[in-house]
Specification:
This protein is an all-alpha fold. The chain contains eight helices and no strands.
């Protein structure tokens, strides 16, 4: 893919991925052909900060996990009311990393 397209994608979406993965993502995008560009532009990524806010407000109900696609964990949090609050507090610290990981997986699926 062209260097300017990759730079534009990275500038617009770097907050959605782990900082230590950015160089690997950039290298992978440079190796990808231009036919993937329309799919990359239309890709819906979850904002980690928004997921943290959702987790703070509705964490005991598992809505944060449902939103990032962790259905099993969402059901578990819903049925136990966030593990009696413990799971909810732990997720306040983990949800941003989990969101970035899901975004990376989504990008990898498109690039394959």
């Amino acid at each position: 893919m062209e260097n300017n397209k990759v730079d534009m994608f990275m500038m617009a979406n770097s907050q959605f991925f782990d900082g230590n993965m950015l160089m690997q993502i950039r290298d992978r995008l440079l190796q990808t052909d231009d036919s993937k560009w329309p799919m990359l532009q239309m890709m819906q990524l979850k904002n980690p900060t928004t997921m943290l806010i959702v987790s703070l407000l509705a964490g005991p109900f598992g809505i944060d996990r449902f939103m990032i696609g962790d259905t099993g964990m969402g059901v578990g949090k819903l049925l136990t009311l966030g593990g009696c609050g413990i799971w909810t507090v732990v997720d306040w610290f983990l949800i941003m990393g989990a969101t970035r990981e899901k975004n990376t997986l989504k990008l990898q699926q498109i690039l394959m």
